[in-house]
Design brief:
Blueprint lengths: L4 H28 L3 H12 L12 H63 L4 H5 L10 H13 L11 H10 L1 H8 L8 H18 L9 H32 L1 H9 L13
């Protein structure tokens, strides 16, 4: 997991803040002979820079503790507030970026992803086995998406390259090559590692096919290599498509409706509302 410097600073400030709060409360209770409520009240109003002046230290040691409390506690308290505010703003900005990124993902599936799934699924030697689990409906819950995702990880499915029209696949990817390049240039992709991996896999497949003038003459070893690239892209496509479908169901029901009616895993799918 990536290190979050804002969360780290907030955690450190909270630990120091609580330590000062506990130490100051206990010290003020014993040195000034105050109740725990009065001691805690004094510590809080001092660290919050309110300072009503209704409770003040009267002993020399208590005054020294109060000075230390002001020097260390006030800065720590303000640090907690500043870091918490920064974290909330950062989280809101990330949500906005992720919203834009999911729009990019939607465009990818509309322009390239769904078509690739159609091509790969036609050559999937176990398509019938995974098809039933990928007919997403409006009744699906979070648990359903997790269950299917787990089943896909344990299942053995893939593209049979002997049943794949490599020339057709090559032509399609070359036509979409500029589109894929523009997507890869999008800086927001760094926020979504799995989608970035998918794009790289698809683009790599396009490059591999582009380098081969006559795919029909490729030896068995080379076809096996291309088959590996195809299946890498296929598996990443399936997982990313399932994740995107869940996103649409939660946030955009009207887009989810269309996505269900154009499900690339449903050979009976139709955009026409019946």
């Amino acid at each position: 997991m990536a290190h979050d410097p804002i969360r780290f600073r907030l955690t450190i400030n909270l630990i120091v803040f609580l330590a000062i709060l506990v130490f100051g409360t206990i010290a003020f209770m014993f040195l000034e002979n105050r109740s725990i409520i009065d001691a805690l009240y004094y510590i809080i109003v001092t660290m919050a820079t309110v300072g009503y002046g209704d409770i003040v230290p009267t002993t020399p040691t208590g005054k020294i503790i109060a000075i230390l409390l002001i020097v260390t506690g006030v800065g720590t308290f303000l640090g907690v507030i500043a870091n918490a505010t920064e974290m909330m703003l950062s989280r809101r900005e990330k949500q906005v970026r992720m919203k834009k990124l999911n729009m990019v993902i939607g465009v990818f599936f509309s322009e390239v992803g769904n078509r690739l799934i159609h091509i790969f699924a036609q050559a999937d030697f176990r398509f019938e086995e995974i098809q039933k689990g990928l007919i997403v409906t409006e009744k699906w819950t979070r648990e359903d998406f997790l269950r299917v995702s787990g089943q896909l990880k344990g299942g053995k499915y893939g593209v049979d390259i002997s049943r794949t029209d490599l020339a057709k696949l090559k032509m399609f990817l070359l036509e979409e090559r500029d589109f894929l390049v523009r997507l890869l240039e999008n800086p927001t992709l760094l926020e979504h590692e799995s989608f970035t991996d998918l794009l790289r896999a698809v683009f790599h497949l396009a490059v591999e096919l582009a380098y081969r003038e006559d795919l029909s003459q490729s030896p068995a070893t080379d076809r096996a290599h291309i088959g590996g690239d195809i299946n890498r892209a296929y598996h990443l496509l399936v997982y990313q498509w399932l994740d995107y479908m869940e996103h649409l169901k939660v946030h955009y029901p009207y887009l989810f409706s269309l996505a269900m009616r154009t499900n690339p895993f449903d050979r009976q799918a139709s955009p026409i509302v019946q």
